[in-house]
Design a protein that fits this description.
The chain is mostly helical. It has one domain. Helix content is about 80%, strand content about 0%.
């Protein structure tokens, strides 16, 4: 239950950061063009044509859903708004392509934590509550950063989702592996 609440809070933090960057940024003409160029460049790096088309199709669907949101947040020019919506939609489409890899890494981290937990249960290793909380924080930080990269047109490059997935997996391994043995 608390993990669901923590993931929801991470999503709200990521959404708040992306909206905050959008509102505080001031004039967005140059930034919007740069964000769109970066997102289009990231789409161009997808080597498989079918995956590229799938990401572009998802981006088109996200564009339709995001257009009213950006219209409410913005009183700027239509071209800037369209560029920001397209950049965000492309980022979301590319991030959606990485969800299976992120879930696989998270599962590997969870299983590695279970292996370590077995050793702690046999009293070969010591379980640290501090490392457990640190692992929980790392896992949620990686997840929140992933949401932030996917939702904000001004976020870091899309390739940073790979280390964020690894960080979340490491956090899951630390969290599960350092839980007290009697749990």
């Amino acid at each position: 239950m608390t993990l669901t609440i923590n993931v929801f809070v991470a999503l709200l933090i990521a959404l708040g950061l992306s909206v905050g960057l959008f509102l505080v940024g001031g004039r967005h003409e140059d930034k919007a063009a740069h964000a769109l160029a970066c997102a289009e460049g990231a789409l161009g790096t997808v080597s498989d044509p079918a995956a590229r088309e799938a990401a572009d199709g998802k981006a088109r669907r996200w564009e339709k859903a995001l257009a009213p949101v950006f219209r409410v947040l913005s009183n700027r020019k239509i071209a800037v708004e369209k560029a920001l919506v397209r950049a965000t939609a492309l980022r979301m489409g590319l991030a959606a392509q990485l969800i299976p890899l992120a879930l696989f890494l998270l599962t590997l981290g969870f299983l590695a934590g279970l292996l370590r937990r077995d050793r702690a249960r046999d009293l070969v290793l010591y379980s640290s509550v501090t490392f457990s909380y640190l692992g929980k924080f790392l896992s949620l930080a990686g997840t929140a950063f992933g949401f932030f990269v996917a939702l904000s047109p001004f976020a870091p490059p899309v390739w940073t989702l790979y280390p964020a997935s690894g960080l979340a997996a490491l956090g899951a391994a630390m969290y599960v592996g350092n839980l007290p043995p009697r749990l």
